[in-house]
Amino acid sequence: MASSTPTRGLLFVTMQPKETLPDVRFHDWYNNEHGPNRTRLPFIPNGFRYRATDLEGTKNGTQDKPEYLAIYDITDMQQLMEEPYQYLRAPPGKTQREIDVMAQIWVDRMLFDFMGEKANDKTFVKLESPEHFEENLGGNGLTTCRFQLEAGQVAQAENWIKQSVIPVVETVPGWRRVSWFKNSYLEPRKDGKVEIVVIFEFTPTAEPKITGIYDNPPVELSNSKTRKYDLFYTFGGAARHLAIVAPWTHPDGVTKTIPHVSPAGSAIESTVTTQDGAVLPFRLEGNSADDSPVLVLVNSVLVTWNIWDRFIKHFFSTPENHKYRILRFLSRGRTFQSGTTSPVTVDLLASDIIQLLDSLRIPQAAALVGVSLGGATTLATALKYPARIKSFVSCDTSAKSPAGNKDAWGQRIAVAEEEGKTLRLASASGDESSSASPQPVVGEELAELTVRRWFVPESYDDPSIVPEIEKVKHMVFTNSLAEFSRGVEALFDYDYTSLLPTYKGKGAFLVGAGDGMLPKGMEKLSKELGSAEGRSAEFKVVEAAGHLPMVEKPTDVAVFVSGFLAK
C-alpha cells in the first residue's frame, strides 16, 4: 500500500529505435513531446537522456542492449498513478504521433522506489538547476547496475552496498554520486523478486573503474546487468529542440513544431508556467543547434509577438545572423493567466524572462531587445541579472516611470470599459477562439487612440505600413481588458536609474524620432549607462518612426541590432 509520506523514486526507461525509425524523427518526438510533457509536471523535477558508451565500435544498440536511457526523478511516486500523468499514457494525451513512434521502439520501462544515496560534496551538482548550466554542458558519466534478489535479501544487499560498494567507488577520482533503488511498490514483480538498480555518476573526465565490486556479494545477484552511458540531453520545462522533422500540433492546439521556417531554421510554439502559475506562451525559432546564441524580443503592452515579424525577416536576411535563435513571448497583461493574482511589476516581468531562459535551458541570452514596457523590462533584466544577459537594446522607454502614468493609463482603461466590447479569447495563445464565454477586451475606441499615438502621421500615407498599423490595431483591440488593467500597473512605479552608472555590461538605446520627448530622455540614459566606469552606451534615433520603430522601420532596427551584436 502507498505510504502517507510521499515516496521518492525514479522513472527509468531504456529505448532502442528499430531500423524503421530514423534517429532525427526519434529525437524530435522525444525532445519536443515526450520528455517536456513529463518535466512540466510539478512532481518530476528533472529529466535526462543518456547514450550508451559500451556498444562495440560504431555498432548500434539492440533490443537486448539499447542505445538510449532516460531517467526522471520523481518526488511522489503515487502521482504516476494519478492525473495528469495518466492522461499522458492514453489518447488523447498520448498522441497519434507518440503511438506511431513508440511502435517503432523497443522500450523497457521501470518504476523504482528510492532507497539511499551517497553524494560527493566536492563534485556532485544538480545538473538540471540553472546555477549549474556550465556543469551540465560539461556532461555526466553514468554506470548502472541492475540485478534481482529474493525479497528477504534486500536488507543484506543494502548493507553490502553501503559497506563494500560505496567505499570502493569513493576511491575513484571524479565520482559524483551513488544512488540505489528497488522496483516500486506500484509495480511489484509477479515472481516475488525485487529488482535493484544502483546508479553511479562521474564527472565527464573521469575514467571509472568499478569492475570487481560485485565479485563477493553476500547474496546471489541474478540477471545482473551493467551498462555505461554519457549524458545526451537534459530536459527543461518546455520543448526547445529545433531540429524538427515534420510539422506537428498537440491536441491542445497550443504546442506546435514547425520545420523549415523562412528565412532561417525551424520554430516551436508552446508555453512556460511561472512559479506563481502564470502561463507565458512563447515562440522559439532559428538555428537548430542547442548551443546557438539566443536573441530575446520583449513586447510592449497591448500587442502580440507579431510586432517583430518584419524585424525578424530583415534580421535573418543577413546570413551572419543565421547562427541565432530568437525567442518571443506573450508577457503578463495579454491574456488570461491561469488565475494568478500576483501584482504585476517590472521586477516580476524581468523574473519571467529568467524563468523562460531557465525552462528553455538557455544559460545566457546573447541579447534582449524590448520596446516600451518591454524596453523597461529589458533594462531591468539586464541590470538585475547581468550574468544571464550578455547585452541589451532598450527601445522607446525610460528607466523611471513618468509622473502621472497611473492617471493616464487609468483614463485609457476607462475608455475601454465604457465601450464594453467582448470577444471569445483563448487562454494560452491569445488568439480569438471558440472558448466558452466572451471576455471584455480593449475594443475599437482605445485601439484607434493607441495606434494614432504610436505611429507617426506619415506612416498612414505609406501603403507598405498601413496594413502593419491595422495589424497592431487588431492586437490592441483583442487584448483582454482584465489582463491589460493588471499588466499596465507595471508602468505605474518603477525606478532603475540608480543602477545605470555601475552597469558593466553591453547596452544600447534606440528610439523613434517621432516618439514625443523620449529621444531626448533616452539619449540621457545612454550617457548614464556605465558612467561610473567612464563609459556610455550606443544611442540610435530611427527617423520617420514613432513608438514601435520595429514595425514602421524594421530594416533600420534590424541593421542596428545586427551591427550592435557584431561588435
TrEMBL record:
Note the InterPro entries from the entry.
AB_hydrolase_1, AB_hydrolase_fold
Q: Which Gene3D superfamilies does the entry link to?
A: alpha/beta hydrolase
Keyword flag Hydrolase: yes
* Pfam families with a match to the protein in the record: Abhydrolase_6
The superkingdom of the source organism is Eukaryota
What keywords tag this UniProt record? Hydrolase
Cite the GO molecular-function annotations of the record.
hydrolase activity
Keyword Hydrolase appears in the UniProt entry: yes
Where is each AB hydrolase-1 domain found? Answer: 307-558
So what family is this one in? Belongs to the AB hydrolase superfamily.
Q: What is this protein called?
A: Alpha/beta hydrolase
According to its UniProt entry, this protein's organism is: Exophiala viscosa
